[in-house]
Specification:
heterodimer, A: 264 residues, six-stranded mixed sheet, four-stranded antiparallel sheet, globular, B: four-stranded antiparallel sheet
């Protein structure tokens, strides 16, 4: 499902202009990472996709729906959004109830709900924690519950807001795996991240925001090598990209495979 | 006598079956910068709470062994005495912000108000601390209107302003942009050089290697390994135990298997990786570090 944003502007009640005219098209099934400085407007932008914020001017289309004309509840059938802070999202007594809440609310048949919940739990490796209260889990596992509860809603568009924050290497690998499963199902995955190595390894397209505007937008390989432009929005290129550059490699390398191939 | 001295510390939260910390022995000198690494659930945050007095004073539970900071013993002190020496920045800044203040400036002054610092001194200390972490432009905003990374800077600043002798930081840059992260590491390094003792929990190995004096690797509540960052962060023991590593380390480890890494030691930082891989690439001419806001050393 396509997302089309035209000249989107948003100002907070305090007068802070957070988005200053953003135009973007994200095609169905794209894997997009949004990067940029703290306060650049990343979270503000994606909160327009599911109606949590309303455009001051400009438009956001989710498929054929104009977000201004649909409720948050309605938009939730098309856009799943995992909050940056899981504590703003979780409220159930146990993990199973939490993960079931979303698909149940969307009115799916019982068999489908069971199937979606099981898949979400196994993707996030929460199978052994279904009876635990989310607030008895560590913050890192709570984050995995937040991810599972959105994945289970089976929306065509899934947004992750800094999914790898505070996660160890194993959980980062689990999240990368979940994203690649969603990709194979043809879902659009939009991820806000400061983990630029994770970004390089898992996304085809990178959008760099700076001060409420799009600074760079294009294929990851083109964007991630532009160290001087990225520095304007406080982003470093990935570690292996920096290494390749220092070694004088001709092409921009993004991950281990590309790097090792380039030096062989 | 070490400034921070943990002797045989074992701790178990109430209503749990296994200890979160097991027989921890850790000494940290005054002005030393120690980084703590480990997988989720290793006990990193619990160790922070133990240093900051929340364990056991706030969380209760069963504790044995002794925790000393600046010559005082935790079990013989109250939490309000303890906070005069030790400051903790929480993993989730949202849980730290008081909720009692309308502006960032007031939020940062909150701790100083509580210990009765005179008004004029308070103002200048808040100004200084905000300048140090680069958040002067946020002074009049509501703490709750900020982005995650900005909130995290406020949380850090509200601890730095207290000028604790021991600064305990639980993933203080987890929501910060990459260059901001490097700047904060530089600031913390400078605080350590000025005599503040720092214990920092982090997953960002590249910056730990560049800025910390020593690394403590925790797993399942115990210390698995400790030592110089370059040695600990490249050890096979950590790789086998599910610890993360910098891409330089993991890529060089794989390159070594394929005969593409010729040095004995694996790299953690960019400079080390450039130096090592240059041996594999006789035709390459490594470029120096970019200027300006590029790679910064200690």
């Amino acid at each position: 499902m396509k997302i089309e944003i035209k000249d989107l502007r948003f100002t907070f009640p305090t007068g802070l202009e957070a988005l200053k005219g953003i135009s973007l098209t994200i095609e169905a099934g794209e894997q997009v990472a949004i990067v940029g400085q703290n306060g650049a407007g990343k979270t503000t932008l994606v909160r327009h996709f599911n109606g949590l914020l309303q455009p001051a001017s400009g438009s956001v289309m989710i498929g054929d729906w104009d977000v201004k004309k649909y409720s948050v509840a309605k938009l939730a059938t098309r856009v799943g959004y995992v909050f940056q802070n899981p504590d703003e999202q979780l409220f159930s007594r146990d993990v199973l109830t939490e993960v079931t809440f979303g698909p149940k609310n969307l009115g799916y048949a019982k068999e489908k709900i069971d199937e979606l919940v099981q898949r979400a739990l196994s993707l996030t490796e929460l199978n052994d924690k279904t009876e635990t209260n989310p607030y008895d889990l560590s913050p890192t596992w709570r984050k995995m519950v937040a991810l599972a509860s959105i994945i289970a809603m089976d929306t065509p568009i899934v947004i992750f807001d800094e999914p790898t924050t505070g996660q160890d290497a194993l959980n980062v690998a689990r999240i990368a795996n979940a994203i690649s499963e969603l990709r194979m199902e043809g879902k659009t995955v939009i991820t806000i991240t400061h983990d630029i190595d994770f970004c390089a390894e898992n996304f085809d397209r990178v959008i760099a925001l700076s001060n409420g505007q799009v600074l760079l937008d294009g294929p990851a390989r083109e964007i991630l090598g532009q160290d001087e432009v990225l520095a304007q929005t406080y982003v470093d290129p990935p570690q292996l990209t920096r290494l390749g550059k220092r070694l004088g490699l001709k092409e921009t390398v993004r991950n281990q495979e590309e790097f090792l191939k380039a030096i062989t | 006598m070490a400034f921070v001295n943990l002797q045989n510390v074992t701790y178990q939260y109430p209503l749990t079956k296994t200890p979160a910390l097991q027989n921890i022995n850790l000494q940290v000198d005054e002005g030393e910068f120690v980084a703590v690494v480990g997988p989720n659930g290793a006990g990193k945050s619990t160790l922070c709470y133990a240093l900051a007095g929340f364990v056991p004073h706030f969380f209760k539970g069963e504790i044995s062994g002794t925790i000393e900071v600046a010559g005082k013993e935790s079990s013989k002190s109250t939490l309000d005495e303890w906070v005069l020496n030790v400051g903790l920045a929480f993993q989730n800044p949202f849980n730290q912000i008081s909720g009692a203040k309308y502006t960032v400036f007031e939020e940062i002054a909150f701790g100083l108000e509580n210990i009765g610092v005179p008004r004029e001194e308070m103002k200048s200390r808040v100004e200084d601390a905000m300048a140090l972490t680069g958040i002067r432009d946020l002074a009049d905003r509501s703490p709750y209107s900020l982005s995650g990374g900005q909130q995290q800077r406020v949380a850090l600043t509200s601890i730095l302003v207290m000028r604790p002798r021991l600064l305990v930081l639980d993933e203080p840059t987890s929501q910060m942009d990459p260059i901001g992260t490097r700047e904060v590491f530089g600031t913390i390094r400078k605080m350590a050089e000025d005599g503040m003792t720092v214990v920092l929990v982090e997953h960002k190995m590249e910056w730990i290697a560049q800025f910390a004096d020593r690394v403590v690797a925790l797993k399942d509540g115990s210390i698995l390994l400790e030592g110089k960052p370059g040695e600990v962060l490249t050890s096979d023991l950590l790789a086998e135990n599910g610890f993360g590593s910098s891409r330089y380390t993991s890529t060089a480890r794989e390159a070594k298997k394929r005969g593409l890494w010729r040095k004995e030691n694996l790299p953690v930082t960019l400079d080390e990786a450039v130096e090592g891989f240059a041996l594999t690439l006789p035709f390459s001419s490594p470029k120096g570090a970019p200027r300006g806001r590029g790679e910064s050393g200690k």
